[in-house]
Amino acid sequence: MQYDGLYYPYYSRRMVQYANRGMVSTTQPLAAEAGLEMLKRGGNAIDAAIATAACLTVVEPNSNSIGGDTFALVWTQGKLHGLNASGPSPGSISLDQVRAAGHDKMPTYGLLPVTVPGTPASWAVLSERFGRLPLSEVLAPAIRYAEEGFPVSPTISSYWKLGYHNIKALNDDALYGSWMEVFAPGGRTPHSGELWRSSGHAQTLRSIADTNAESFYRGELAERIDAFFREHGGYLSKEDLAAYSPEWMEPISVNYRGYDVWEMPPNGQGLIALMALNILKGLEFNAKDTPETLHKQIEAVKLAYADGLRYITDPRNMEVTAEELLSESYAAQRRSLIGTEALMPAPGEPPKGGTVYLAAADGEGNMVSFIQSHSGDFGSGLVIPGTGICMQNRGAGFSLDPDHPNVLAPRKKTYHTIIPGFITKDDRPVGCFGVMCGSIQPQAHVQVVMNAIDFHLNPQASLDAPRWRWLREKTIEVEPQFPDHLAQALARKGHNVQRALDSGMFGRGQIIWRDPETGVLAGGTEPRADGHVAVW
């Protein structure tokens, strides 16, 4: 990929990083260095990704946990592999039960939104299939930080405190008391630079390492999870855990200006990014920072989102296929709706037929695009006593409308927000990328891909560039540093433009590109976080 060597002038003064033997990029320096440690021990990029991911459950616990989900795209041995380690709803839950309890939408916290966690299983299957080092060695840095403690980094400290206030406001010590004991000992969260440790995390990670995650799904940890939900009247059971296994899936792609952009298929929302790019590839862009370019990007994302929110769910329950939504004829139909004024998005009729992200690469050509989450700050707010396991709340994504494809049902996977990205060209890897944070993820994927391919920005500059995000109808939000003259020009095109007070909801991304001739790696990390690129 051709790109310039300059930083993006509006935001960051970080510079793109280079290496040839290995690289790990993520939102927390200790986690990135843990991955690099595996490479230096003789491991590969898969080992590095698992080590980094496990470490992130300790050093960035507000964003992800042992009780969360994972998606990964792995390039190895000349092929791209996709792993969906998201879990289904409990087998005993039903739409009627939830509605009878007085809910008209799924709650964010508590027992109801908890689905089967896939993260521990993802580490185990990735290690077994592609890793080189034993899982016990790969998880050792995470265990060490949990046991001995680590100094909390600045951005994470602020989100940790926000999560504390949200959970404290629920005022239910019986249900959330274990969270308070683990994450707010003494009635407060750790300050930036303060040491925090959790022996429960360490013991759980050691059990997962020693049993290849069997203890989490069919052993002692499964029993403790089951006991907690039985005690409090929840639905998740040891039978749900025992029945779970991650799914290997074929990634989906569109060709965008000669590059193949890859995402995971539904139930993830990566399809939205591909639909938007499929629309945009039929349009011309003469420069990056113009009202016309931004307007076209926003309109394409709005149209893609309207379809994604209408159709994406567990693939077994989708009314249309990903292939139908990505057809050239449907992209042309949606593209024709883009005019000079902001439109009100609505789904079309296609032809029938809390998150962390990391990127890892080694000197052998292996590359991993890896995303892990429990959704929001601290997921459901439930911690299994004595384990440090914070349970996710992915079930909050289900609809309670019986006519919606993503309606709650037993043993069903919900519409999922976390998405890893990958790019290839002529069947060779260009690299991995991702931007975490809820609904902005496919929008930021589109912006990052276009920054790199259309506007030739290097990995760091692609991440530094000011972002916008579509919220609803004709409303968009722009970052504080977004140029005012562009915001005003978009308003004149009919967009309702709001300026955010901070960049907290505009995503945190990582990129690693590989030069196809020399093998040199080029990496960028997110300036909106405590990001770090570890290089070798």
UniProtKB/TrEMBL annotation:
Task: Name the InterPro entries on file.
Answer: GGT-like_enzyme, GGT_lsub, GGT_ssub_C, Ntn_hydrolases_N
Where is coiled-coil annotated? none
Q: Does the keyword tRNA-binding apply?
A: no
| One example GO MF annotation | transferase activity
Q: Which UniProt keywords apply?
A: Transferase
Q: Does the keyword Cell inner membrane apply?
A: no
Query: What Gene3D superfamilies does UniProt report for this protein, alphabetically?
Result: 1.10.246.130, 3.60.20.40
By its UniProt entry, which Pfam families does this protein fall under?
Answer: G_glu_transpept (PF01019)
Q: Which domain of life is it from?
A: Bacteria
Question: Which named protein is this?
Answer: Gamma-glutamyltransferase family protein
UniProt source species: Paenibacillus piri
